[in-house]
Amino acid sequence: MRTYIDAIGKVEVINDDIIIALNPPYRDGLKGLDGFSHINVLWWCDGCDDPLSRQKMITSAPYTEETLGVFATRTPQRPNPIALTTAEIMDIDSDKGILIISWIDANNGSPVIDLKPYTPSLDRVENPVTPSYFSHWPESLEASSNFDWSSIF
């Protein structure tokens, strides 16, 4: 089965701003988003869109000595290199199709394939269970901003 995905825009890093720049046909889709503080950005890991990366099912991770299946990690090397980032919305210009967000772990120019508002009733889990090697990681997006990620990756 083949599935078609059309990029709705791309990530742009301009000075200190992280921008989601939507293609003109998708700009009207921003209507009503200004009532939300956070957004889920689905983007394409175009740097890992090659046959070898798409075939990789077992990977090593810097946070454990175990090898893991790609579905137990956030590695961009996976059958479909789709990534998900939750970010704070800093500003929206619906006319220009511009969304300024707090951060994203995508590269400048990475294709954006969808945007969904962050809604706690659907996106928040009160008591998630994770493997013990994550026990020292932050418990929220807000706490993550002060965490020393360079000690992990």
Automatic annotation (TrEMBL):
Domain of life the protein comes from: Bacteria
Gene Ontology BP, a term: methylation
This protein's record includes keyword Transmembrane: no
Residues annotated as domain TsaA-like: 5-127
GO terms, molecular function: methyltransferase activity
Alphabetical UniProt keywords: Methyltransferase, S-adenosyl-L-methionine, Transferase
InterPro entries, sorted: TrmO-like_N, YaeB-like, YaeB-like_sf, YaeB_N_sf
Family, similarity comment: Belongs to the tRNA methyltransferase O family.
Name of the protein this chain belongs to: tRNA (N6-threonylcarbamoyladenosine(37)-N6)-methyltransferase TrmO
Lineage: Bacteria, Pseudomonadati, Pseudomonadota, Gammaproteobacteria, Enterobacterales
